[in-house]
Amino acid sequence: MRLQLTGVTVVASVLLVACSAFSPAPTPAPTLEFRPFPAPSGSPTAEPPLASLETLPPPEVLEPDQHDENGCLVYAPDQPPDCGVPADPADVADGPELPAVMGFSGDYYTNRLSAQDVVILSEATVVSTEGEWAARGLVRNETSSDVGDVTVTAALRGRDGGLLAKAETVVPIDPLRPGEPGPFELSSSVNASRVANVEWSVASNESLGSPRQFLIEQYWSLPYGNREPRGFEVGTDPPYPFIVFGSVFSRAGMPAVRPVVTTAWLDSEGGVSWVDSTPVEMASGLIELAPDSFGDFLVSIEDASVGPGLEFGRHLMWVSEARKVPDGAGALRLDHGGGLTQPHTGPENEGRNDTKCPDEKECP
Hints:
Layout: E1 12-15, H1 59-62, E2 104-105, E3 118-127, E4 132-141, E5 148-157, E6 163-170, E7 181-191, E8 197-205, E9 214-222, E10 242-250, E11 256-257, E12 259-266, E13 272-279, E14 288-289, E15 294-301, E16 315-321, E17 323-326, E18 332-335
Antiparallel strand pairs: 1-8, 2-16, 3-4, 4-7, 5-6, 5-8, 9-10, 10-15, 11-14, 12-13, 12-16, 17-18
């Protein structure tokens, strides 16, 4: 199901109604009516400020040696340049096309900062109604500044209004820039059928991350299932995983420590169906991606309940350094499991552990 957000703060309520169960590739369900956050009472509706997008220059500027004076791609001196095919006017969407953004690829980016807060995108958030309660979705930074440590909390309440549990997670992207979406996943051991109401809240802090000045290149994808094996798959048995292969080019002025590619796949209605994080592989086992250098990534989804529902092109992709978190001694450490659901303790959570890390130990 989708979220219905109301109110003038980032805290909202959603009534769980009967619809299809949560799954990595959920059955399309009717989208609930979305009511935008209203303007404060008595104040005129102002034109929202515009974000200053950290955009990428065109390919002929990024790779001048591979393009001619007309911006056409040159493969070899003895071959004609490739100037591409002019776009069909019927295929061009209404409104201005947003330029390519550093460190991000996909939908839900906006340059209109309407809410002036970090908000949950109801149209991109899917909540379970059967089995253990779970949710996947997107937030978006609609403030005028970079934010970090974006925390999404869901308070699950029963039919009597009592608190059943709380689930909390940190968006793994830092910094999350003005106008940029970020993915989240939440889960709880509470059965979804017991949940009558969910109170959502979003909090954020000043960003501790380094500027995400990366170019994402996605080269090819292979579907999940019984297909011809490729490369490292030769000699193994099907079904073969869903794969996306590509590279990351750093345009930052400093090395990027342990860069990670985070991918969120969308279902047919634009809701988040799966989230994956994959490290960028550098040469010779290095942990830093040097300025003006490339690293490769290979997204591989082997889960038979997930892989068949994923499609190349129906996804968002981010590149960022491994998230930095305080270590309790005034310094920062790298969190290699960014975005994992955190455990909560207290009487209302006795006997449960809403965490993806066993025994409530720190994730590796």
